[in-house]
Predict the structure.
Amino acid sequence: MANGRSITGGPEPAVVTALPRAVPGIRVCVRLNLGGCGPYAHIVADVEPPGPGGGLELVSAVPEELLPREHLPALREGLLEGLDGVAAAVLVTGGHYHDVDSCDLGYLIAGRQAGRAALVGAGLLPPGEAETLRWASWPGRPRPRRGRTDRRP
């Protein structure tokens, strides 16, 4: 590669390293029922382009009685996976946990879903990717497609 051109002679594809625009109000509620109990997590977050340092910045404005700090490392790990290398600033504005069912797995899943939702909402993933997000919603989310089997004759 020389002068920003690929071996085939075409221009190099743009490499996105930062979220290009804000995606506010991402809501993720993970409820897995595995025989009466299972991972649970609920977060609401605003995802924005990163600050000058880049990377992932995670700040929680939720009181600890609603979202214990012990789950934030799992949430951060999930966000890193979901954002897939795209830098972003994440402000958790709401959330809830369950005394018995909340665990790191639930918040890991919630982080992944929130990260993917941010990428779809910012236009970095095609709108069809929204259909793979089982527990996430955000303002402007494309409506899920319903098959004809959902309708009664």
About this structure: The beta strands are 23-31, 40-48, 56-60, 88-96, 136-137. The radius of gyration is 18 Å.
